[in-house]
Amino acid sequence: MKDMITSTHEAKISERQAEQFRQDGYCVVDGLFSMSEIDEIQEFFEEFKTRGEKVYDDGLTYEEIDPAKRQVRAMHPHRYSKKAQDWLLHPEVAAVLKRLLGRPALAVQTMYYFKPPGAKGQGMHQDNFYLVSSPTTCIAAWTAIDAATTDNGCLYVSPGSHRRDIFCPDKTKNETWLAYGDSHINPFPRDLKPVPVEVPRGSTLFFGGNLVHGSGPNRTLDRSRRTFIGHYIDEVSEAVGQHYHPVLDMNGQVVSRVAKATGGGPCGDGVSGIH
Ligand SMILES: O=C(O)CCC(=O)C(=O)O
User: Domain 2-166+180-261, what fold?
Assistant: First the structure.
């Protein structure tokens, strides 16, 4: 039944938005999640955090993370919760992904950023540096649970950078390239001009896996910038990094034909990790 819903669903995306995705590497689409679903996602993760559920793969909970750092996010909650899996596989999101990719997507990751007041931003990076999806890049659906603005740490993107290759870090120079707040791309190319993307509560920002992006700090005293994020790959993908398995189709079935990426990779050493 769900299969039929997915395959007959008309994508709620305009030609202008699809064109922006092709030209600039991103677009914002409204109304894929209903406001009651957004309320439900928010309540679910507040409870998830309070219960001290696993928020990282290694078992760390919210409470165990140094509160001074405040970089708190849930990693892969869809592996522990059917509800989070349903949000990852949401039919409206699936329909937009299919339109943008030209083929059905496969789902590989969820994250939830709590980003409370005072939290640092995420350094500039490209998602497919970590996912190493091949032969095509990955794609993200980033849904704002709070309105994301320049004050509370919205995303910054470099339009057009989705056409570039993966930028490899200069490991001889800087061992802290993965630190929060610092650019993961070092030196940062002068021609890439990041612009802020403000997103209203409930809207979804789609961006390609080679798009250079990051986020600003949360400078407010009283507004979180919470976000539910799904990462996906194209159904023609032959491999994706090991942290992103099991791979699911948009009906929740495990897809075993996608291999675990090892060796090689765009930076020559098969760098793949959780970002
Ligand atoms: O939401 C953020 O602050 C960063 C998210 C991000 O970089 C991503 O989803 O790839």
Answer: Jelly Rolls (2.60.120)
